[in-house]
C-alpha cells in the first residue's frame, strides 16, 4: 500500500501533539518491555487498513509488554480501584498511517478482569482476552504470569521474569521508538481508528531477562521469535491520559 507523502512524526520521548479533551485516564505501572526485531513484510498483513509497519533502520518490532493497569477512569472521573486495576500483558506491533502518525497496533491484550474484557471486546472491538494473571515483586526482580481463560486458545501462557537494573539517563533513539508511542491504530466496524495519548517521559531502566516462556506471540498470529529479545527494558510507570478520537477516530489501551 502506498502512503501519502506526509512525513512520519519525529521519534521523541515527549508527546508530539496536544490532547485537549480527556476520554480516559489510567496509570501503567511496573512495566517490562520485551522486543524482537521482525521483517516488515511479515507483519504488514496484520495491520489495520491505512497503516504500514513503522520501521527503524529497516526493521520493525514485535513487542511483549507486561504491566499493572491501575485505576482506569472515564473522562475526569477518578479511576476505579477494583475493576479498573488489574495485570495486563499485550502483544503489539508498530505502525504509521498516511498522515504520518506513529502508533501501536495491539494483536492481543490479556487482562485479569472479565467485565473490562467483555466491554472492550463488545463495544470497542479490542482484542482483549480474559486470563488468570499475577505480578510478583521481590527486591529487584519482578515476575509476571498469565494463562488465558477466554476466548481461545484456552490456556495460552506467558511467564516472564526480569531483574531491574540501573536507570537509563539517555535512552537511545531505538529505545524511544519502542516505548514513546503517542497513539493507537485500530479498526472499528471496518473503519480505521486512531486514539491519541499523552503521558510524562518514560523513566526507563536496563533489565536482565531471567525467564521467558511465551505462547502469546504465536497465538496472536505472529511468527515465533528467534533467539532472545533484542531489547529488554523496565519502567516503574507513568500516568496516562487518552484524548478523544482523532480523525479517523480511535479507542484505547497501552
UniProtKB/TrEMBL annotation:
Give the protein name, as stated in the record. DUF2071 domain-containing protein
Q: Which InterPro entries match?
A: ADC_dom_sf (IPR023375), DUF2071 (IPR018644)
Taxonomically, the superkingdom here is: Bacteria
One short Pfam family name for this protein?
Answer: DUF2071
Q: Which Gene3D superfamilies match?
A: Acetoacetate decarboxylase-like
Q: Which SUPFAM superfamilies match?
A: Acetoacetate decarboxylase-like
Amino acid at each position: 500500500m502506498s502512503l501519502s507523502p506526509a512525513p512520519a512524526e519525529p521519534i521523541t520521548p515527549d508527546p508530539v501533539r496536544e490532547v485537549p479533551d480527556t476520554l480516559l485516564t489510567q496509570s501503567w505501572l511496573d512495566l517490562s518491555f520485551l522486543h524482537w526485531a521482525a521483517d516488515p513484510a511479515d507483519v504488514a498483513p496484520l495491520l489495520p487498513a491505512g497503516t504500514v509497519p513503522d520501521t527503524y533502520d529497516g526493521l520493525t518490532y514485535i513487542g511483549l509488554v507486561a504491566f499493572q493497569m491501575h485505576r482506569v477512569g472515564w473522562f475526569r472521573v477518578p479511576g476505579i480501584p477494583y475493576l479498573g486495576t488489574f495485570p495486563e500483558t499485550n502483544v503489539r506491533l508498530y505502525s504509521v498511517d498516511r498522515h504520518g502518525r506513529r502508533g501501536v497496533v495491539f494483536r492481543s491484550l490479556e487482562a485479569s478482569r472479565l467485565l473490562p474484557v467483555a466491554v472492550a471486546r463488545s463495544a470497542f472491538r479490542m482484542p482483549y482476552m480474559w486470563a488468570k494473571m499475577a505480578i510478583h515483586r521481590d527486591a529487584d526482580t519482578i515476575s509476571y504470569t498469565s494463562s488465558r481463560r477466554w476466548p481461545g486458545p484456552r490456556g495460552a501462557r506467558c511467564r516472564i521474569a526480569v531483574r531491574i537494573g540501573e536507570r537509563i539517563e539517555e535512552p537511545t533513539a531505538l529505545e524511544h521508538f519502542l516505548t514513546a508511542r503517542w497513539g493507537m491504530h485500530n479498526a472499528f466496524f471496518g473503519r480505521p481508528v486512531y486514539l491519541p495519548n499523552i503521558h510524562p517521559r518514560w523513566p526507563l531502566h536496563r533489565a536482565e531477562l531471567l525467564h521467558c516462556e511465551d505462547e502469546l506471540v504465536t497465538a496472536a498470529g505472529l511468527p515465533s521469535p528467534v533467539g532472545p529479545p533484542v531489547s529488554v527494558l523496565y519502567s516503574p510507570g507513568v500516568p496516562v491520559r487518552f484524548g478523544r478520537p482523532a480523525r479517523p477516530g480511535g479507542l484505547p489501551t497501552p
